[in-house]
Amino acid sequence: MLKKTFFQIHWFLGITAGLILSLMGVTGAIYSYEQQILKWLNTDSYQVQVEQKPKLTPAEIYTHFQQVQPSYNINSITIAQDPAASSSINIAKEGARRGQNIMINPYSAEVLPEIRGREFFHFIQQLHRNLTVGPIGKQITAACTLMLLFFVLSGIYLRWPKRHSFKQWFAIKPQLKGRNFIWDLHAVVGTWVVIFYLVMACTGLYWSYDWWRNGMFKVMGVERPQAQLQAEGRNKKENQNNQTPHQARQTQVVEQGPNSTDPTKKNTLDQAQINLALKQAWQHFPQQLGQDYSSITFNVPKHANSEIEINFVDVIPQHERARNSATFDYQQARITQLELYADKQLNEKIMSSMLPVHRGSFFGPVYQFLAMLAALMMPLFFVTGWMLYLKRRKQKRLTLAARQNQTQFKIDPNAEHWLIVYASQTGTAEQLAWRTATSLQEAHQPVTVKAIQELQITELKNNTQILFVASTYGTGDAPDLSSSFVKKIMSQSLDLSHLRYAVLALGSKEYPDSYCDFGHRLAAWLQRNHAHALFDTIEVDNANPADVQRWNQALAQVTQLELQSMQIDKTFDTWRLQQRDLLNPNSLGTPAFNIELVPQHEAHWAAGDIAEIQPENSTVRIQDFLKQHQLDANTIIADGQQTLAHALAYKDLTAPIQTFKTIDELLAQLAPLPSREYSIASIPSQQVLRLVVRQKFDAQGELGLGSGWLTAHAAIGQNIALRIRNNPSFHLIDDDRPIICIGNGTGLAGLMSLLHARTRLNYTQNWLFFGERQQAHDYFYQRTIEAWQSTGVLQRLDLAFSRDQADKVYIHHKLREQAEDLKRWVEQGAVIYVCGSIQGMASDVDQALKDILGETQLEQLRQHGRYRRDVY
Q1: At what angle do helices 134-159 and 178-192 cross, to 10 degrees?
Q2: What tens digit of pLDDT does each residue of 133-144 get?
Q3: Rounded CA gap, 750 and 741, in Å?
Q4: 762-772 b/e with 16+ CB inside 10 Å = b?
Q5: What are the two backbone dihedrals, phi and then psi, of residue 491, each rounded to the nearest 5 degrees?
Q6: Residues contacting 43, CB < 8 A, separation 6+
Q7: Are 503 and 519 in contact (CB under 8 A)?
Q8: Which of 67, 302, 454, 535 is deepest in the core (most CB within 10 A)?
Q9: In this model, does residue 247 exceed pLDDT 70?
Q10: What residue ranges define each of the domains in the chain, with the CATH number in brackets?
């Protein structure tokens, strides 16, 4: 819930403040290179022709302007060591607290051309700081900067800890398509710029809020300069006097620079004293300093205290604001105070150089360039965020339309209505029901889709055409939620002679004794009640596409409608097999493995969901098949995209092969390998998808298809085709009611995902029943379970290891032992989850629960979603 809340705030602020942040990012990137761009545009102002004579001294420059421009009130004079670099003077200018800089020829004091581009950068600066609309704009940009800080922190939280690998966190994956690629671009590039945006936001707020600025000084352990406090006091007073925004901004002093002398103060020294001060300082200060510099600035003294303030820049300064300062007594010709930037502590450097920290030059030219690129990327997040938002909106509209039974197809008003009823445990039957509905709607037929547990007797009597899509669960059972229909309606005799029906029965030939059993029982009941079959019941083995097509063709033939081809949409994603560990060494049972897979994309699933694996044939099996039929593995098949060996990897190679003349004839005979399903034992925040897979062996002693592929044939690091299948009937409740988890063997996987999710939510009313053979060898995830127990996350734990004593003890025995406590938990609202083998465990547990709670109460729990099963 916390993550969902953060997500909602993240996208809402993103689509509202994103445009302003984009503008701030672009303008900030441009402004960060103001000095470099101005020097490039104004080489005739910053560079001069070198002459074979010394540069004019500060005193000579001052005297020159007193003669030719006596109106100039000179604040400071700057001279660079580079013979080709111009000198400059700073003069007092009304409304400009830092005065106006004028570039001059260092050999003649001739005024050089005015700097072009200053007005442009002033506009960019104001756009960046306050959108050029004064105090209101400043408040808007300040609020957006706070939002940027939230975006960075919430973005890390929302992404953490999906994956820790460098590739997943920092590599853009161009192979992704559509929304996945947009999300990947948004998240990966966002990770690149996290540090830059954190620094920009924290330093940007320095100029936005007094409370933030005061907090920064306290956190950094630096005392605020007195001059800065006084300047802020003046700013407040000037604002109260309705000073123009431009003037107010000019008077705001946030850093002390070489030209910070207040031009409003009257000079009490005469020209001779000023000339003496400048001559003495120029003649003696550099020698006494004892180090080289790139430029030096002499602040014209204004009081008769025999002192002159001097600022100078190192030959290789750390950044453009890394200035040293000194006080020089020109009467005694000695330095009375010297403050070197290099001698400052790091915290002092940061707080006295906030603008370089903000634009990145504080950390060097490489970081500054990367910070500029990060700022330019700001619009990317606004655009991709909006695209993701619009795609989410579109998907919600489509989902809502489907739920409200809206359709884009024109319906024939004279056509007879079809009712499609599904009985589904894990969602496959429901998907096929909706695909059938779409196929009929495309042929302009009116259709309604309904779950079998919602079907009423009146609907059976009032409809003349019903199609049933019925899954068989476990060993011939109806899906859990269908039990009420079986008991209340299928137990009755009805007159259904008006009804025409067809049944699509879903099952798995891995269970030959109960293959599609519920579908056949449903069809038999309809026939006994005199309903008329449109065609014989069609069986579907593990959602086989060919079987589904037979259903579609049969419907087309009996209705004389042109129905489009129909199948279950299965799109497998690419996952990497990261780890495989034997969970039960020396066990009496067959080996069981912990399988860990990591996605090559952003993956989401819920506790209780199912991983559907598309296995491949082992290399040995493919080579044996090729050798048996004398085929070349490197033969390119008709599509020209793959070799024969690659195509055979996904084909059933165990069926008899008839004589074939071409490779295409061979491949046409080979059925595709069926997929395999496994309960997921982890949740997304654990960074891996974890399965518990026990090896299965056929009559010939060969490893089973899915278990063999995952536990033996696939190499560590190999790609695995996997898709997440939603399993809502086994999802975790979204509140803190107690849960009782019951499972055996590899069924522990589905329960582990539920308990992991509960742990993250700090819900502690959890009770686990787990059974296996021997505690010494078959206690899967023992350390995790014991840790849960010791920390109170798992309040109750009952273990049943059947082979650890003479009389075998199973889970249903433990349930009966704890009958009273179990009833008390159920009375407190507990939800029961059962995961594991249907043969033995699940049926015995079901009987034990009936005996303890009563059949009526257990059925009520089932109907209200408080008795949920994932059994196989």
Answers
A1: 110
A2: 999 999 999 999
A3: 9
A4: ebebbbbbbbb
A5: -80, -10
A6: none
A7: yes
A8: 302
A9: no
A10: 405-559 (3.40.50.360), 573-725 (2.40.30.10), 730-871 (3.40.50.80)
Best CA proximity match to 810, nearest among 847, 855, 756: 847
Nearest to 595 by CA among 447, 695, 461: 695
User: What per-residue confidence (pLDDT) applies to 397?
Assistant: 61
Q: Residue 235 pLDDT > 80, yes or no?
A: no
pLDDT classification of 613: cutoffs 50, 70, 90? very high
725 pLDDT higher than 90: no
Tokens 């518990």 belong to residue: 692
Closest CA to 563 of 402, 446, 467, 436: 436
Q: Which residues pair with 309 in a beta bridge?
A: 299, 327
Residue 384 makes CB contacts below 8 A (sequence gap 6+) with 182, 183, 185, 186
What is the pLDDT, as a whole number, of residue 705? 87
Label the pairing between strands 573-582 and 676-679. Answer: unpaired
CA distances in angstroms from 395 to 46, 399, 400, 409, listed in the order given:
59, 6, 9, 19
Q: Pairing relation of β-strands 689-694 and 592-599?
A: antiparallel
How far is residue 359's CA from residue 31's CA, in Å, rounded to a whole number?
9
- The burial of 538, by beta-carbon neighbours within 10 Å (0-12 exposed, 13-18 middle, 19 or more buried), is given as buried
Q: State the Cα–Cα distance between residues 125 and 359, nearest whole angstrom.
A: 12
Cis peptide before 674 (omega within 30 of 0): no
Query: What DSSP letter does each residue of 454-515 carry, written as one string?
Result: G--HHHHHH-SEEEEEEE-BTTTBPPGGGHHHHHHTTTS----TT-EEEEEEEE-TTSGGGT
State what percent of residues in the chain have pLDDT above 90.
59
Is a pLDDT exceeding 80 seen at residue 459? yes
CA distance 603 to 573: 9
Q: What is the mean pLDDT of residues 199-207?
A: 94
- Residues 409, 412, 415, 416, CA torsion sign: positive
Q: Give the H/E segment covering residue 338.
A: strand 334-339
Q: Which of 350, 377, 22 is nearest to 206 (CA)?
A: 350
Q: Are 836 and 743 in contact (CB under 8 A)?
A: yes
Lowest average pLDDT, out of 155-159, 358-362, 739-743, 772-776, goes to 155-159
Spell out a b/e string for 630-641, using b for 16 or more CB atoms within 10 Å of the CB, else e: ebeeeeebeeee
Residues in the chain: 872
d(CA 97, CA 251): 5
For residue 161, say if its preceding peptide bond is cis, omega within 30 degrees of 0.
yes
Structure-token match 């604002």, residue found: 239
Q: Is pLDDT above 60 for 224? A: yes
Separation CA 145–CA 24 (nearest Å): 9
Q: How far is CA 452 from the centre of its chain?
A: 38
Q: If DSSP codes are grouped into helix, strand and coil, which group holds residue 279?
A: helix
Helices (H) and strands (E) in the chain, counts: 33, 24
Which DSSP symbol is given to 840?
I
Is residue 63 classed exposed, middle or buried when 0-12, 13-18 and 19+ CB atoms within 10 A define those classes?
Answer: middle
Q: How far is CA 166 from CA 170, 172, 580, 598, 685, in A?
A: 6, 11, 21, 13, 17
Token duo for residue 794: 């798992």
Alpha-carbon radius of gyration of the chain: 40
pLDDT tens, position by position, 517-534: 999 999 999 999 999 999
Q: Are the C-beta atoms of 258 and 77 separated by less than 8 Å?
A: no
Dihedral angle over CA of 10, 16, 19, 24, nearest 10:
-70
Partnered with residue 867 across adjacent β-strands are 832
Nearest by Cα to 720 from 635, 624, 615, 642: 615
d(CA 357, CA 363): 7
CA end-to-end span of the chain: 31
The candidate with the shortest Cα–Cα distance to 78, out of 70, 67, 69, 86, is 86
